[in-house]
Amino acid sequence: MQDGYKIEMKDITKHFGGVKALNHVSLKIKKGEIHALIGENGAGKSTLMKILSGAYQKDEGQIFIDGKEVKITSPKDAKDLGIAVIYQEFMLAPDLTVAENISIDRLAATGALIDWRRLKKIAGDQLAKLGFNTIDPGTKVGNLSIAYQQIVEICKCLTRNADVIVFDEPTAVLTFTEIEKLFEIIRRLKAEGVSIIYISHRLDEIFELSDNITVLKDGGYVDTVPASSITKEILVSMMVGRTITQMFPKRNARIGEEILKVENLNAGTMVKDVSFTVRSGEILGFSGLVGAGRTETMRAVFGADKIDSGKVTYFGKEVHFKHPKEAVGSGFGFLPEDRKKQGLLLEQSIRINTTLASIHKVTNKLDIINHKREKKYVRELLEGINTKYGSAEDNADSLSGGNQQKVALAKWVFADCKCIVFDEPTRGVDVGAKTEIYKIMNKLAEEGVGIIMISSEMTEIIGMCDRVIVMRQGRVSGELNKELIEENALIKYAMGV
Ligand SMILES: Nc1ncnc2c1ncn2[C@@H]1O[C@H](COP(=O)(O)OP(=O)(O)OP(=O)(O)O)[C@@H](O)[C@H]1O
Ligand SMILES: [Mg+2]
Predict the structure, then answer these.
(1) Contacting residues for 378 by C-beta, under 8 A, at least 6 apart
(2) Among the ranges given (114-128, 275-289, 340-354, 391-405), the one the predictor scored with the smallest mean pLDDT
(3) Atom of ligand 1 nearest to the CA of 40
(4) Parallel, antiparallel, or unpaired for β 419-423 and 271-279?
(5) What number of other Cβ atoms are within 10 A of residue 202's Cβ?
(6) What is the pLDDT of residue 384?
């Protein structure tokens, strides 16, 4: 029955309290196959992979490896069976070296008798095998770029002789050059017979990379299809249950007065002589490679980091936001890219997270919260962007990755800002919800809000922006008006060629 499959997950069911996260889901992966796992936010992709990796326990169902049924009751069981998962948030120790991280299991096992030379050699050999001789095994992992950290994570899996590797949204933190490198590695792994399970919301990647595609919807299994036999349109309709005619909805915003003007901004080592303006009703894009200084620029303007020199004018007045609170008080909002660290209070309820930046809207004159009004606001707002959640009183960390992003976004929509920075607003968000988020941004622009969107997705920059600033190594390397925004120009400025 299980002949020829490396992994078979059969009839897997999983509940979280009242939520049925997985309902009789099956997945079959061949040896040496790249198998994409797709579905909307909250569809159950990560949960299924956490069951495979021993992080969660299934309620029902069976798992077979090479045709034999196995019990996976802990992460160690999965490791011993050759299963490795690369999560979006890496599990590396930033203060240890590359070599130590790669051999971390052995370090724990051998105790005091560590053969450092051998560790370095293992790491060096593995890195060389993947074509990354440039990474020094003696470097602290915390000093590496995110892309290189991911390489280390992959090496760690390979030295454990993993022959099944799960990538859960690996490219969300990477830009185009790094993504190409990652794809090279994945193809090489496939050639060596490793089975790959690949989760991503970027359908172009799915088509570029995968052999077969399994679609989940609302915790249920939809279908498994060969990538070569299906179109993007059909795939989207399988995922969201309807066709999406327009990824980037039309916007009827009037571009008006200048809201924000930044001149010759210098801040720390990452922001050098940056100047730009944003007008009312305008969506200004910030493009560039990871580490180009886009987030750092906005953090400095927002009062989160210190400004060394330069001038910020907001509604015609020079301002010096010394703390994000001052910025927010002036109607300047910021949706940060790292929702785990800055965007959400994961241990607090969804309701509190949504109304956090604007609690005055649901309080009366005596500062007493009108709970009925608050509940209604929260519900309308979250449903407006199709957020999937159980109760508004559940903690934010019970949400799937993409739904956390929607709550983080809702908070700023609720706050009546006049100018908002959206830093990678659709990272990890499914195609249907992306369009919802674009609609929200358009609506804000139509209401006269000035919007700054930092994005590493070129299609989104091209589809959404009135104007785009490209940054490279801390400086503005180019500026393009709507009609001139296209891929080659963006790459040219981003890479400095
Ligand atoms: N630890 C948990 N506690 C409660 N509910 C959870 C937990 N983990 C997941 N869920 C719920 O299970 C469902 C499936 O979530 P999962 O994270 O698997 O989705 P996903 O397909 O990976 O989505 P995304 O694309 O947003 O990452 C969601 O409704 C989510 O809220
Ligand atoms: Mg997920």
Answers:
(1) 350, 351, 354, 355, 392, 410
(2) 340-354
(3) 25
(4) unpaired
(5) 16
(6) 79
Q: Where do we find the tokens 């919007």?
A: 451
Ligand at minimal distance from the CA of 430 is: 1
Instruction: For residue 392, tell me if it sits in a domain.
Output: yes
The domain in which residue 208 lies consists of: 5-240
**Distance, CA of 385 to CA of 368 (rounded, Å):** 28
Residues 231 and 265 in one domain: no
How large a percentage of the chain has pLDDT more than 70? 94
Domain of residue 200, CATH code: 3.40.50.300
According to the 3-state scheme, what is the secondary structure of 209-254?
HCCEEEEEECCEEEEEEEHHHCCHHHHHHHHHCCCCCCCCCCCCCC
Whether residue 268 sits in one domain with residue 211: no
Looking at 114-171, list the stretches that DSSP marks H as alpha helix, in order from N- to C-terminal side. 116-129, 146-159
User: Across 63-77, 80-94, 349-363, which has the greatest mean pLDDT?
Assistant: 63-77
d(CA 154, CA 198): 14
Q: Is residue 318 included in any domain, yes or no?
A: yes
147-165 exposure pattern, b = at least 16 Cβ within 10 A, e = fewer: bbbbbbbbbbbbbbebbbb
Q: How many residues does the chain have?
A: 497
pTM of this structure: 0.78
Q: Using alpha carbons, list the distances in angstroms from residue 326 to 7, 27, 344.
A: 54, 51, 19
pLDDT in tens, 143-194: 887 778 888 988 888 888 899 999 998 877 677 777 888 898 899 999 999 9
Residue whose CA lies nearest to ligand 1 atom number 22: 46
Q: Is the pLDDT of residue 2 over 50?
A: no
Which residue CA neighbors atom 8 of ligand 1 most closely? 398
Cα(46) to ligand 1 centroid in Å equals 7
Could you tell me which residues come within 8 angstroms of residue 222 by beta carbon, excluding any fewer than 6 positions away? 39, 214, 215, 216, 238, 239
Last residue of a domain, one of 240, 267, 299: 240
Distance 54 CA to ligand 2 centre (A): 16
Give the nearest ligand 1 atom to 48 CA.
18
pLDDT in tens, 399-427: 888 888 888 888 887 778 999 999 999 88
